[in-house]
Every structure is written in C-alpha cells, then in structure tokens.
UniProtKB/TrEMBL annotation, chain A:
Residues 13-85 form the Ferrous iron transporter FeoA-like domain. Keywords: Iron. SMART domains: FeoA. It comes from Desulfofustis glycolicus DSM 9705. Gene3D superfamilies: 2.30.30.90. The lineage of its organism: Bacteria, Pseudomonadati, Thermodesulfobacteriota, Desulfobulbia, Desulfobulbales. This is Ferrous iron transport protein A.
UniProtKB/TrEMBL annotation, chain B:
It comes from Desulfofustis glycolicus DSM 9705. It comes from the Bacteria. This is Ferrous iron transport protein B. Mg(2+) binds at N29, T32, G33. The chain crosses the membrane at residues 293-313, 325-345, 365-382, 410-428, 440-466, 472-492, 531-550, 738-760, 769-790, 802-820. InterPro entries: Fe2_transport_prot-B (IPR003373), Fe2_transport_prot_B_C (IPR011640), FeoB_Cyto (IPR041069), FeoB_GTPase (IPR050860), G_FEOB_dom (IPR030389), Gate_dom (IPR011642), GTP-bd (IPR006073), P-loop_NTPase (IPR027417). Keywords: Cell membrane, GTP-binding, Ion transport, Iron, Iron transport, Magnesium, Membrane, Metal-binding, Nucleotide-binding, Transmembrane, Transmembrane helix, Transport. CDD domains: FeoB (cd01879). PROSITE patterns: G_FEOB. One of its GO terms (molecular function) is metal ion binding.
Amino acid sequence: MARQRFRGGQKPCMLKDVRSGCRARVRCHHGTRSIRQRLLDLGFLPQAEIDVIRRAPLGDPIQCRIGSCCVVLRGSEAAQIEVDEAETPRDAEHQP
Amino acid sequence: MNTTPATAAMSLLVGLAGQQNAGKSTIFNMLTGANQHIANYPGVTVDKKYGSYRYGGTRVEVVDLPGTYSLSSFSLEERVTRTFLLGDKPNVLANVVDASSLQRSLCFTLQLLELEIPLVLVLNMMDVAGRSGLKIDTNRLQHRLGVDVIPTVGRRRDGKQDLREAIRAAAVRREGKTLQPGYELLEPALEEMRQAIDQTNLATHYPARWLAVKLIEGDEEVLGQVTWHLGGGNAELQQAERLRDSFFEQHGLSTADYMAGCRSRLAADIVDFCVTETKKDRASLSELVDQVVLNRFAAPVILVATVFVIYHLSIVKGYDLTQYWWPILASLRALASDLLPAAGMLDDPYIRAMGLWMVDSANALLNYIPIFLILFSLIAILEDSGYMARIAFILDKLFHAFGLHGQSTLPYILGGVFAGGCAVPGVMSTKSIPDEQSRMATILTVPYMNCLAKIPFYTLLVNVFFAPYKSWAMLFLSTITIFFALLVARLLTSTVLKSMETVPFVMELPKYHLPTLFGVGQRAIERTWQYIKKVGTIVVAVSVCVFTLLQFPGLSEERHGAFHDKMDQATATFRAKIADTPHGERFADDKALLELANLYTDYRTAKLNAGSGAAGVDDKFQAAAPELFAFLKPADQDAKTVSTALRQLDSQRKTLRRQIKEEQIVGSFLGMIGKGLEPLTQWAGFNWKVNVAILSSFAARESSVATIGVLYQEGAEENKSLEERMSAETKDGGFTPLHALAIMVFFALYPPCLATTIMIKVQTGSYKWMLFSIVFPTLLGFVVASGIYTGGSALGLSGIQMMAWFYGLVVALALATGLYKTWSDKAPPIVRVPDFRTEKG
C-alpha cells in the first residue's frame, strides 16, 4: 500500500509542506499499517479536506481541522500524507 | 446470524463497545452499579472489566471492551475487542457513541454492524450535543440503522431503564433488517467472495459478508486466519489479492482506503439525514480560545503560569491545610496508643512498639492528603477542560527529542515535576500513552520526579549544609531531576527499549469543556484513594519489615542490665524526693509509678499536639484520672514537689530510652548491613547512618527523615531541632556540604519506593521491569553520587561549587542530546539514485 505514484516525475506534495492557514485535500497515504489506520479513523480519508491551522510553538506537531474536529500530528506523520493543495495563498513561494 | 437468540430465562452476555472518550465507563457504571470486577484478557495487559445486573429475571453480564477507534487489527485494544466479539459471541452489543461527534462514531458503528451481532446504539452525552446546538432525530437514526437507538446521559444516569429494556429486546428479536454498509464499486466482487466463503468451513466461524469485506480490505489478521483454516495459497486468498491489485491499478487507491471512504460517506449521509445544527459557534469558540492559548508566544507563558498556579494552590496552600489536618492524625495515634498495651518503664511490649511504628509510618504519608486532593482536583480540571491535551501538543517536540511523548506530561506532573507529587498515580496515568516505547520510558522515569516524600529530606540537608544558598539548592534539586529524567529516557529508548513498538503521535484535540464538579471530584477522590490504599497496604507491611530489621537482634543482656540499673537509680531518686510528702507511700509500688509516668508522657504529648486548645486537654485528663491529675498540674506545695520530681524522672527515662534505641539500631540487622556497605559507599561519602536511612526509606521515603532523626538524637532532650543536632554531630564527624550534595543527588535518582515499584509491575505486566526499575536507579544514583563526592574531593571543590559544575554538566548534556536528536531527525532522507550503468539498456 506504500506504493507511491509520481505524476510526471514531480515530487508529490505532502501535508507536512502545507503552510499554516492553508487548506489541502488528501490524495493518498504513504504510511502503512497502524499509522494509516489511525489517520483514516480520525478522518484523513482520501478526498477529505484538511485545514492546517498552526504549528506548536516549537514548530512541531501540526494542528489540523477535519470537519468539526481538531487533530494534531507530528511532522513525521504528516510527511506520509500526500495531498493536493486546495487553496494556495499567493505568497506560497516564500515557504521554507 | 451466528448468535443464538436468548430467552428470558437464560443469561445474556453483552459487550460494551465504543470509541475512546465516548463515555463508555460511565455507561458501564450506570448499567452494572457496584457489581464490577477487573481481570486481564488472556496474555495481554489490557484490563477486562466486567459486571452484571438482573433485569426481568434475566442475568445480564456486561463486558466493558477497550476503547477503540475502529475494528482493524493494528492495535492491541482492537485485537482484543475483535477476538472477544468473534470468539465469545456476545448476545448483544451495546455501542456507546458520543452524540456530539456522531459522524466519526458512526464509522465505527458501521464496522460493528458488519459483525451481525444484535446491536443497541447508546447515544451518550446527549446533554453535550444539545449544548453545542446539535439536534439528533433518534427516530430517523433508528430507522436508518435498523437498530434501537437509546439516548443517554451517563453522568446523570439518564436512560438506564430504556437501555436495559432495549438490550433485552435486542437479544430476543428475530426479525428486522439492520443496515449493512455498501461498497459501491466493490459490491460485485464482495458478493462473489461471500459466495466462495459460504462454500468453505469458514462460514461456521465468521459472518461470511464480514470475512469477505476484511479479505478484500487486506486485513492481515484475517488473512492469517484464513491461511490457518484453509491452508496457504488457497483460491480465496489469491482471488482477494488479485482484486486488490487490479483495483489499485484502476483507481489509484487501495481497497482499504476506498472502503473506509465508503463508510465515511455513508456516516456523513446518515448524519445529514438525522442531525440538524442549530448553532455553529461552539467549535469556533474553542478555536478562538486556541488562538490565544496555542499562540506561538503566549503558549509558553500561559503554560508556565498554569504550572505555577497548580504549584501554589496545591503545595503552598495544601501545606497550610495540613496544619488543620495533622491534629486529626495525631489524635488517631493517641487513640492507637491508648488501645495498645501500656508502655513499660524502659522496654515497651513489642506489640506496642510495632503498632505505634506502623501508625507513625502511615501518618507520615496520610499527612499529605489535603495536598493530593487539591493537586488531583486541579489536574482533573486540566484534563476535563481539554487543556491537558494542549499541553501535550505544546511540549511534544521537547519530549519527543528524548524518546518520550507529548502525553508524558500528565504522568510527570502527577509525579511532581517540580512541585512534589506521587509516583503512584503518575505511573498509573501512563495508561493513556498509546506509544509502547514512550510509555515504558515514561513509567521508568516518572519516579525521578520529586515526590512529596523526598522534600522533607532535601529540606533537612539543605538547611544544615546549604543554609546560605537555600533557594539555589532547592532550585537545583527541583530542576536537575527533570534533566535527569529526560537523559535517562533518552538512554533507555535508544538501548533497552529500542526494539519496542512505537506509535505515531496522532491525537484529537478535544473542544474546551467546562469541567463539572462531580467529574472533577470523582477523579480527585479516586486518585487520592489509590494513594491511601498504598499507605494502607504496602507501606504498612514494609514498615513492619523495616521495624523488625531495626529491632533485632536487640541489646545484649549485659547492656540491658546496665540501662535498667540506671533507671532503677532514677526511680530511687524520685522516691527519695517525694518521701517527705504525704504522697510518699503512694508510689512505692512500681505499677503505680509506671502508671503515673505514662500518664505524664501522654499529657505532655497531648499538650504539644493541642496547641491553642490546651485548656481542653486539662479537662480531659482531669476527667480521666481525677486522682493523679493533681500531680500533672499541682495546686499545693506537696503536689508541686512530686510534680518536679516527676519531670526529672520523665526526662531521665526519655534519655535512657533514646540511648537504648540508638544502641539497638547500631546492633540491628539493618545497622549491620549499613555498616557492611560502608567500604563501598565511602566512595559516595555515605557513612553507615546514611546507609541505614537509605535502606529504610525503601518502604516509603518518608521514613528516611524519621530514621535520621533517631540516629542523630544526641541533644534532643535540650529541645534542639533535628537540624541543629545533625549539624553539630556531622560537622564534628567531618561531614561536608559535598557529602550532603552526594546524598541529595543519590536521593533524587534513588529507586522508587516499594508502592511505586508494585505499580510499575502492574503497568508493565512484568517483574523484570519492576526489578529493572529498582536496580538501574540504584546503580545510576550510586555512580553519580560517587562521581560527585570522589571527583569533588579530588578537585578540592566545595559543595556549592560542585553543585554549580554538576548542574552545568547535566544541563549541557541534556541540551546536546535533545539538539542532536532534533538535528538527526531533520537530516534529509536517503534518496536512492538509480545506478545509470545498469539502466543503459
């Protein structure tokens, strides 16, 4: 299930790279087994829309909103969720 | 259907399933009342809670299943739940859901429905849902799902009768069609699969449709089960695998993801159909609060302020409260003292000595009850309000750098991060940490926190040896333990715990709730009760052992005789002094004299304990012993003479008793062990008295101050404080602040008390870890203390200099470790560059 799909050699966009305050749509999970299941249980389903709200003061974990509930996850986990950025703000080029 | 419908005469087995935080436990309590038992599921440490009740002549046994988010087979809880549902085949399944987050709960409900067990949906926390503006049409929901839906408020016990009735009805119902989630694109394949399964003997063990769903999802446990039943490489497995692969090729999505999506859409659809939202501002209120509370700059300030408030209210104010609480405990001791056989002139009956020792050991611990009640109430408020989860969010990165988890915060705070706590509830609360590796690391490091019992010992040593730097020394002690805990956690997770299962940090941030008085009170009392139980059982039992070790083999006949001769001299002097008074004849009898002497001691103790209420003590003693009272508070000249002589007699008696006690300890088993260890402990600068204190404190750390008190008792009769006595004696004996530093650091790292180690056994489920939690800190503490003492002596550093150097070293080490881990996490993943030579063709 961890098979990655590269479209045109482009590096896939991961939830970890989405800036705070932006929205993304889940494409698929690269994680397997328990982490994948846990994320699915909490609503990170394919096509689900996710608002990245903020990072913790130390930069990690990441706080997201799915529907009406808030979920926090570490960057290492967010790096396994492939997303499409749904609304990219203009200054996205400045992101680290 | 694979469950047999039960008739009213039979007994029913009901499984209580639900997601975490759905209020399953309150529903369980509501159904079964006090009739509960806890056992373990075979082979695992997950608690199996079961209870029973009678309803309409039927005995209903309820099993509280562990809280799980779904019914896959990845986590232990999920496997336990599934094994129970498929193996024990309960007659009815009561699915507790949180009405305020219905959609996610329904995803789980849909998975339960596939098991084809008669189900009752318990719509719990209806009040919360109502307050957040959700109107749930239970009739529509009932209709859509095809099962009974019972709205409840577990905390208020609303809906108890309805639920009991619905469970009974569901058990005997034969018709009715429950909803089965459909999987759209996969339906034809599922049907084919189901038919194939119907041909095999698997259908007798599992619901066929469920098995088909799981096979196509690729559930590893089910794949294993099918292989076990039908042998590897059978047609069904191959068929399922082909199907999964071709689906992935076609849709770019795994079947499992797709099926989870189908269930989720169905749940969303049901929610749309049954729930109307009347106000939408509830969620945004939580978010507004979060904007401040989780703000990058404000968050650390608010966190520190919160911890400070907890410290101030529980420890500072709590100590004030113990002033009112201690007299109650002292009166308990007085009561025990009255009940036990009376004291002898010099030797007490063993039963009395042991009884009082036990009461004293227990009282030392029970003294902290007001502090714990406040501390645990405040922590419960943090938990219930939702802030605790946010603390975990804020601190996770810090903890993670040392192999711990954001949720290690709560155990650390309970254990007494700097304020003083107790490791027993601290270790208990590690239960909620999902990551096994972090959980073990937390369990093994919580005991390094400053438990309340360590503090009197620290205070004693700091007052004697670091008086000019008191606040610095206390700051040193309260923070160095955190750095040590983090370093040890890092060490353990990268060595002995390395192979343990780790679970990612994914956590739901609950919305803010206003905690209820009942909820907070219940939790605070429950945790305090755990503490009291520890005192009542383990500590008392161990105190008996320590007592025995300190008491035997006892004094030699010769020494014993010498003390008795001295006592006889004292009584003779007393009698000579009062011979001229009319009372001279009265105390010629030893028994009468003993009675008077004991009464005098009781009177002095009562006076000391009573403080301002001293007048009441006089009345009490006058009423209890009207004849002898005249000598306690003399009115005429003759009585005064007796009283003066009595005071001298009492003083001599006390001195002799202390001397006996000290000689007894020196010659006792524990004293011998302490002396025997001296050659080894000299590297850390510990003399045998310190060794004895350390050994006796294993029962409970409180006893260390008491033991030291007995060992350093010269001068006690002049009413010098223990500080003064210790200071005078130890400084003569060449005891320096460097010695004290080594002892304090050893005490900070020293193994947990017995009660904590037992809790570690309970939480880790193994004696091996319990033993580890004793041996490792002892070695660590000894090595570090030896380093401080031997190193400090070699370098010619003073106590406070060594303290500063040592602190700097530990902090630097902790920072380096933490930064190294963070840095190594950031290192870019290794990208495999294809080898172009092989790709030439």
